[in-house]
Amino acid sequence: MTVIVQDNGSLHKSNKTCQQWQRWQAQGLFLFFLSPYCSEMNRIEEQWHQLKTHEIVGRMFEDEYDLALAIMDGMEARSVKGGYTLERFKFNSA
Predict the structure, then answer these.
(1) pLDDT tens track for 21-75
(2) Is 93 among the domain residues?
(3) Cα(90)–Cα(94) distance, rounded to whole angstroms?
(4) 32 and 48 share a domain?
(5) Range of the domain at 17
(6) Is residue 89 part of a domain?
C-alpha cells in the first residue's frame, strides 16, 4: 500500500485526477488530502519558502523550463548545505 499526502491544489483534485482514483486504489495507491489552508501540516511549504527566499529570490525567468531548472539547482544547493541526499524522480504520466 502506498499513500500520497497532498494539499488541496486544484491540480490534485482535477476531473482527470478524480477519474483515476478508483484505478489507483485497486493498485494499492491512496491519496490523502490535507485540510484546506493548513500549510503548517504540509512540510513542503517550509521548503518552498526557503527555496523562494534564499535560492531564487529576485530572479526572473524566461519560461517555465528555466524556472524548473532553477528550482532543481536550488534544491540541490539546499541538500548540499543541509548535508542530506536529494533524489529526483519523474512520474510516468501515461
Answers:
(1) 889 999 999 988 877 767 677 677 788 888 999 889 999 999 999 999 999 999 9
(2) no
(3) 12
(4) no
(5) 1-37
(6) no
* Domain assignment present for 87: no
Contact 75, 51 (CB under 8 A): yes
- Cβ proximity of 74 and 51 under 8 Å: yes
- Pull the grid cell for residue 90: 519523474
Q: How many domains does the chain have?
A: 2
CA distance 55 to 74: 5
The structure's pTM equals 0.54
Contact 7, 34 (CB under 8 A): yes
The DSSP symbol for 70 reads: H
Would residue 77 count as lying in a domain? Answer: yes
Which 3 state secondary structure label does DSSP give 8? coil
CA 48 vs CA 17, 18, 34, 78: distances in Å: 24, 26, 17, 11
